[in-house]
Amino acid sequence: MARSTAAPSLGATIKGMDSDLARQILERMCLIRHFEQKVVKLFQQGLIRGATHVYLGEEAIAAGACAALQPSDYITSTHRGHGHVIARGLDVKPMLAELLGKATGYCRGKGGSMHIADMKRGILGANGVVGGGIPLSTGAGLKSAYKKTGQVTLCFFGDGAAQQGGFHEALNMAALWKLPVVYICENNCFALTTPNCDECCIDDIADRAAGYGIPGYVIDGNDVFAVYETVKQAVEHARSGQGPVLIECKTYRWYGHYLGDPEVYRDKAEVQEWIAREPIARFVRELDESDLLSSEEAARVDAAAAAELDEAEKFALESPPPAAEELTQGLWAPDKPLPAAVRKSDRTIETTYCRAINQGLREALAADEDVVILGEDVGLHGGPFQVTQGLFAEFGGERVRNTPLSEAAIAGCTVGSALTGLRPVGEIMYIDFTTIALDQIVNQAAKMRYMFGGEAAVPLVIRTMIGAGTRSSGQHSQSLEAWFCHVPGLKVVMPSTPYDAKGLIRSAILDDNPVIFIETKRLYNVKGQVPDEEYFIPLGKADVKRAGKDATVIATGAQVHEALKAAEALSSEGIDVEVIDPRTLYPLDKETIVESLKKTGRAVVASDAIARFGPCAEIAAVIMEEAFDYLDAPVKRVGGVEVPMPYAGELEALTIPNAAVIARAVRGVL
């Protein structure tokens, strides 16, 4: 492993930094310093609220590192991200306005201190989740490598994030695929309030690079020459296709973890010792000694930065707050028309639910080179249920990528690559395993567009599998679709037939929003007629699977088939049942459901998931709110038994609703 424990010599780095670059770096450092001092003042005045983390004392890292980038490169940032985005060139006026929650802020007052972003400059967002940006940066690196754009991503994170599982998963994936990412650990001696010696079993976090076979460097983070030179070399290494680099910058934060932190955990003398070694004065002294920039000129740079922040403060204080109508704007990408179906005939073929999804994925890959598939065993093996079978052979390993067994990295790579221009389809083998990846799905994919002021697009699909019936026991059989329906910013699709599965996967991939595409395992071998040409089914549109006049059954997933069996059985009793499949759980097609209730006046809702707080509960609530006047009986819910899924086949069968249970519920509402 390549390793440097000391800064490069001053002479060598001075030769690589001319006066124009030195001035630019100093300007950025001074802007960061004055910005953060202004933030401290406004916070103490009560004008900035909430969790606020300042970058004072660490200015050399952001300014030196970002100076090594090209304009088209990317960065991901942290909750202590003001310095990174200023170093990347953001205007301090809308930045300060954002911290004050104003409409003129970069994110229109929706992101605040921890979530500044600017997609046009390749700033993929500061992040309020410790380590949250690390898997995202790997996704950005995947996009750059796949598209051969030459772009590099700088990923900034703190020492505490190096203890996160996502750190290890992301570095392993980036090293495996030789992605152009430079991971920069800003080791400021404390993770929240815990000193390094109590949080990490090694002295230098950069030593972990050896475990992934990538270069690792330890440098003085207060020496801007060392930062610039080391990051420049790392960026060149990554850009040339040699893979990622890990750099640890030793530094110190002047304030506590957050403004208002009582800081009882550290010695005041230690703080003063580090302040005495502060990076700006050191840089100015070295520039003066090298004749790159005089101390008088440096003083003028600092004064200009102070004046710019005074103007920014005035701008921010005078800016209006967001208007009330802004509350619901910016969550969803605008709807766009689906392509016209390419139908040359009405010919259909009989195929399975599994193969129908496979056909939809194949068509999407063929239609758009930005579509990529990634997940565990999706390549030559074709996935655990053979949904991706044959796609690796047809489109190759760049388009259909086997990943490590790393759900957080899969989800994060999917989010990061979507954020930077791809249309990835990530597979999480079982919905049970999304628990490992929830941060990237729930805190990143779902929130980014809204949190960044409506400017980010995250066009991704997460495919996953639900349900019992395969004797896979408690950790491979859950129906957790309600979790994702509860998160603003996610669309949730759940087809029940081969026809729907193919049409919906095509539409999901075309959607500019993150979509959770849920497949029911015990439907994979169900057969149906499917056009062998291109077609699309709009998301958010239910389907009436069977018309009827006496009662309505709204069923999801495998329960659609049980509802149809129940309807057929009840027809012999003279009971005419209408069966509706929502197909998309969110957004839910309320209109189709209400129209049916106007006709039948009676409703049963059926799902594999437990009825409590699940799809059954939500649809029943919608019926009560939207169709109460048409009801002639209370709504009945049919759901799974409230136990973890047992292994024994006899017990498993008892947990899953069936046609007989649904028929009994229908009789109960008549």
Number of domains: 3
Please give the CATH class of the largest domain: Alpha Beta
| CATH homology superfamily name of the largest domain | Thiamin diphosphate (ThDP)-binding fold, Pyr/PP domains
Helix content: 25-40%
Average pLDDT over all residues = 93
Tell me what the structure shows.
- Helix 9 links the parallel strand 6 (216-220) and strand 7 (245-250).
- The protein is 39% helix and 15% strand.
- Helix 7 crosses helix 15 (407-419).
- It has 24 helices and 21 strands.
- The chain is α/β, with parallel strands linked by helices and 670 residues long.
- The strands form five sheets. Strands 10-9-11-12-14-13-19 form a seven-stranded mixed sheet, sandwiched between helices. It has a five-stranded parallel sheet with strand order 1-2-3-7-6, with helices on both faces. Strands 16-18-17-20-21 form a five-stranded mixed sheet, with helices on both faces.
List the topology elements:
Layout: H1 10-15, H2 19-44, H3 59-66, E1 74-76, H4 82-87, H5 92-99, H6 133-147, E2 153-158, H7 165-177, E3 181-187, E4 190-191, E5 194-195, H8 196-199, E6 216-220, H9 224-239, E7 245-250, H10 268-276, H11 279-290, H12 295-318, E8 348-352, H13 353-367, E9 371-375, H14 391-395, E10 400-402, H15 407-419, E11 423-428, H16 438-445, H17 448-451, E12 461-466, H18 481-485, E13 491-493, H19 498-510, E14 515-520, E15 527-531, E16 543-546, E17 551-555, H20 559-571, E18 577-581, E19 584-586, H21 590-600, E20 603-610, H22 615-626, E21 636-640, H23 649-655, H24 659-669
Parallel strand pairs: 1-2, 2-3, 3-7, 6-7, 9-10, 9-11, 11-12, 12-14, 13-14, 17-18, 17-20, 20-21
Antiparallel strand pairs: 4-5, 8-15, 13-19, 16-18
